[in-house]
Amino acid sequence: MRRLLQFGPRSFPKLNVRRLSGLAGSATKYSAPHAWVPTPYVTETVGGGWRQHDIFSRLLMERIVCLNGSIDETVSASIVAQLLFLEADAPEKPINLYINSPGGSVTAGLAIYDTMTYISSPVTTTCVGQAASMGSLLLCGGAAKKRFCLPHSSIMVHQPSGGYQGQASDIAIHAKEILRVREQLNVLYRQHLIKPHTLEEIEALMERDKFMGAEEALEIGIVDEILTRRHESENDKK
Q1: What is the mean pLDDT of each run of 10 residues along the chain (238 residues)?
Q2: Catalytic residue among 70, 154, 158, 197
Q3: Residue 100 burial (CB < 10 Å; 0-12/13-18/19+)?
Q4: What is the pLDDT of residue 135?
Q5: Is 158 among the residues known to form the active site?
Q6: What is d(CA 118, CA 86) in angstroms, rounded to the nearest whole number?
Q7: Given 76, 101, 121, 133, which residue is catalytic?
Q8: Which of 20, 24, 159, 195 is 20 to 30 A from residue 181's alpha carbon, by CA?
Q9: Cβ distance 127 to 94 under 8 Å?
Q10: How far apart are CA 163 and CA 173, in angstroms?
Q11: Beta partners for residue 226, in sequence order
Q12: How many CB atoms lie under 10 A from the CB of residue 136?
């Protein structure tokens, strides 16, 4: 089997998108989204034919899921769908989730977390780059003894933040809700941290932005191991 790695597609149609405002005749032109990343494609030659996959679909075939960027409803839906698909394909085989995220929506992140704990397949989590805010919860929410980070990873934890404006009674309702979410997240961190912590210690840890390197994250118990080099497989040893 022969594989060819290329970047594509080579050309893209030009889109002229206009956003209407309250002023007559005013419009704004948009270019490609800033979050767009050139996607490599892998072409495999098998027998007399060939097939092509984008790199993330090819990694999915190896049971590898990549969480890159901020966590929102769209990203969450994609990650949840991939986890469910891989579980249906082989429930007993582990799934590898690579995280490089600054965090994002709490509800979207909890959808991923709940799916990770719901499915039969154990989920191995690895931090590459950073795992901040909700990303850090997903990192430490992986299977026991299967939570890793690379040597120069950055992990950050903090309490949830938000804002609301409106009637005083509605503001009080939303304030009560964010306090409930904070307590819920603290309980989850306490459940997954390797070393035992009281809720008071967790609250103190989350009071402000707490940045950690790989060694400190290991010491606190967010990860089980710092990976410096991939372990040799049995085939390599043979």
Answers
A1: 45 36 40 60 79 87 96 96 97 97 96 97 97 96 96 95 86 92 94 89 92 95 92 48
A2: 158
A3: middle
A4: 96
A5: yes
A6: 13
A7: 133
A8: 195
A9: no
A10: 12
A11: 149
A12: 27
